[in-house]
């Protein structure tokens, strides 16, 4: 049973927001808010993430627990400072201070990561990997979903794990030709940078030619990570050409051996 409708009604009531005002915050139709509160429908995951992020809650709490007013006072929903005020820079997670410890984000925990990527406690609780690398602290390992970055048995396969290092969003030094992982409000976008366009827009492309290029606004990124390495369980078989070359080399070796004899 989901409690999201009851929680939306309670948040809206204590914040003195009408259904129309609440709907406007998240680009919804007013009847949709009524349907959520009456249990006739539920928000899409993208909308849940927006609501949770806006009010400083977690998607898990919105869905699985009927929140009380006292509990809501512990979250940012009652913050008094203007929303536009820049928050203090959070302390780094312990895992991000250890050079060779890399928090791993499995595909089935990606949405949880999107909501809580700023939580040091959550980052430290992720499964740790200890890849041998010299990338320094603040690394992540993400599980790849899909085959957009795979071409002719090369590249990133479905369920591969990419090892990434952080890119500072403030400076965003990005180099064409390199692969980046962009954490957005709803997904993990892994693409190769084709070029940087004006107004902080990136032109990204997939290595798989079946997928087209796309333009991506930097402001959509919650985090940016540069892909440095990949861990894969897929063992690539030799191609037909490689197999033929190997056979020819073996035949030449046998011929030379007979001549020497």
Overall description:
The protein is of the alpha+beta class and 261 residues long. The chain is 31% helix and 21% strand. It has nine helices and eleven strands. The longest helix has 21 residues, at 240-260. The radius of gyration is 24 Å and the shape is elongated.
Quick take:
This protein has 261 residues and is an alpha+beta fold.
Task: Write the SSE topology.
Elements lengths: L3 H11 L4 H7 L4 H8 L7 H11 L3 H6 L4 H4 L29 E4 L4 H7 L3 H6 L2 E2 L9 E5 L6 E2 L2 E2 L5 E7 L11 E5 L4 E10 L3 E5 L8 E4 L5 E9 L8 H21 L1
Parallel strand pairs: 1-3
Antiparallel strand pairs: 1-2, 3-6, 4-5, 6-11, 7-8, 7-11, 8-9, 9-10
Helix pairs in contact: 1-3, 2-3
Into how many domains do the coordinates divide? 2
- Specify the CATH homologous superfamily of the largest domain: Umud Fragment, subunit A
Shape: elongated
Number of helices: 9
How much helicity do the residues have? Answer: 25-40%
The CATH level-2 architecture of the largest domain is identified as Ribbon
Distance between termini? 81 Å
Largest sheet: 9 strands, mixed
Which sequence of SSEs, written as H and E, runs from N to C? HHHHHHEHHEEEEEEEEEEH
What's the assembly state of these chains? single chain
Overall CATH class of the largest domain: Mainly Beta
**Total number of β-strand segments?**
11
Radius of gyration: 24 Å
- Mean pLDDT equals 85
Widest sheet: strand order? 2-1-3-6-11-7-8-9-10
Indicate the low-confidence ranges by residue numbers: 78-89
Q: What structural category do the secondary elements indicate?
A: alpha+beta
What name does CATH use for the topology of the largest domain?
A: Umud Fragment, subunit A
Classify the beta-strand content into a percent band.
Answer: 15-25%
